[in-house]
Design a protein that fits this description.
about 325 residues; 15 helices; binds zinc ion; single chain; 4-stranded mixed beta sheet; globular; mainly alpha
């Protein structure tokens, strides 16, 4: 696994950079290219397992878990280092394919590693979410629980994704709030209190009984147009599109703590301009944009959030959520 040897990490980061360059290419082409990279290396060579894992991801995004499974199995057999644990990825597709015997074998191995403390940062979440998705809630809770306590002792702060998983599953199981659930509730209350005093935040209540909370997002092709027309929005939106996606993602995470009715309002420059004219308001006013975000919510111009970690990202990049906006670090 990664995280032990700086030289290994450097090679894995370089591979990841190369993978990033393939964004926007159709997934089957990516998968074929990544698999070629893997097969060009002798078994056990540095980077071989990592390339197979990326090939598996590309097939998953293409909606072909069978093909993804073959790639993850190759990575597991190889046994070399990879940023993501191929067994955790494999477990997810095996459960999806209903191959329960092999899934149990893989889960047993992962459980031994968990017990012996051989863990990586994304390991708990991937396994917990795979189990949750397939209705195995008690087991999912054990993994989220382990992830929360592991991150608390080794990173210093309980991991928010694990914390939310823990909260969600405990609620689904009808369990009473524990101290982590109380932490989740407290964070959410603090966030809502802050929102009351700060109207520059993008979040808005979508109106209606559902009380959907949305955050306004400018897709990649709209972002430069919006900033060109309204340079005053630079500070709020972020200096570039990556920063904008990060802002939106972090808002959504804060907003989503302890609730599920959260979505991305997908805005457009024409939409905002038209809305502001209709309301006889200035588009730069925060209240106009909050009302516009709410209208997007009512009109269904939204993307639900969060996507599954293995599903395409909400931002429209075509990458898996966990490899895209799901990978942004919480500033704390
Ligand atoms: Zn994204």
């Amino acid at each position: 696994m990664a995280g032990m040897d700086p030289e290994v990490d450097a090679v894995l980061e370089a591979i990841l950079d190369e993978v990033e360059d393939w964004h926007g290419t159709p997934h089957p082409e990516q998968a074929a290219h990544f698999e070629e990279h893997a097969r060009a290396l002798p078994p056990g060579a540095m980077g071989r397992a990592a390339w197979f894992v990326y090939a598996g991801e590309a097939w998953e995004l293409e909606g072909d878990p069978g093909h993804a499974k073959a790639m993850y199995e190759e990575a597991v057999t190889d046994g070399g280092p990879s940023l993501l644990d191929p067994r955790a990825e494999l477990l997810n597709v095996l459960l999806e394919l209903g191959e329960t015997d092999r899934a149990e074998e893989v889960l047993d191995e992962l459980t031994v590693d968990l017990r012996d403390g051989r863990v990586t940062e994304t390991f708990h979440v991937t396994v917990g979410e795979a189990l949750e998705l397939h209705g195995r809630l008690q087991e999912a809770l054990r993994w989220f629980d382990a992830g929360v306590t592991w991150s608390e002792s080794f990173v210093g702060d309980p991991d928010l994704v694990c914390l939310n998983g823990h909260f969600r599953v405990r609620r689904a199981l009808g369990l009473p709030p524990d101290r982590y659930d109380e932490l989740v509730e407290r964070r959410r209350q603090e966030y809502l209190d802050d929102l009351g005093d700060d109207d520059s935040l993008l979040a808005s209540t979508g109106g209606g009984a559902a009380g959907l909370m949305t955050v306004l997002y400018w897709p990649a092709e709209q972002f430069p147009k919006v900033l060109e027309r309204y340079p005053a929005l630079l500070e709020e939106c972020g200096a570039d599109h990556a920063e904008h996606r990060q802002h939106v993602e972090l808002h959504l995470r804060d907003l989503a703590v302890g609730t599920s009715a959260v979505a991305v309002s997908v805005g457009s420059l024409d939409g905002l301009v038209g809305f502001a004219e209709q309301q006889a308001d200035h588009a730069v006013a925060a209240s106009t944009r909050a009302a516009y975000a709410a209208q997007c919510g009512r009109l269904g111009q939204t993307v639900t959030w969060p996507p599954g970690r293995n599903e395409p990202c909400w931002c429209g990049s075509g990458r898996k959520y966990k490899r895209c906006c799901g990978a942004f670090r919480d500033a704390g």
